[in-house]
Amino acid sequence: MPFEADAVRFDLICGVGPDGRWHGWFDVRVRADALRPLGLHPGQASAAVTGASPPAWWHAEAERRAHH
Q: What angle do CA 26, 14, 66 make, to 5 degrees?
């Protein structure tokens, strides 16, 4: 792994969701200075949406495919 052991933190959070079913979430955090050797740095511009959103049918099709 390209990171030192103390540069990355990950947690698993489990609990009952609003629908009454169990859900799990991962939380992954990497120290900003640990990203520098990979060509990333804290001063870089964040990813931002620069164009229009895809049409509604595109989202619906993606949802259908995700459940198959």
A: 60
Indicate the pTM of the whole model: 0.47
State phi, psi for 37 to the nearest 5 degrees: -60, -20
Nearest alpha-carbon partner for 30 in 14, 42, 19, 43: 42
d(CA 47, CA 45): 7
- CA 66/CA 68 separation, integer angstroms: 6
Kindly give the confidence (pLDDT) of every residue in the chain, 68 residues in length, as a single tens digit, with 9 standing for 90 and above. 578 888 999 999 999 988 999 999 999 998 888 888 887 876 777 666 677 888 888 888 888 888 76
Give the integer Cα–Cα distance in Å for 10 and 24.
13
For the stretch 43-65, what's the b/e string if a residue is b when 16 or more beta carbons lie within 10 angstroms of its beta carbon? eeeeeeeeeeeeeeeeeeeeeee
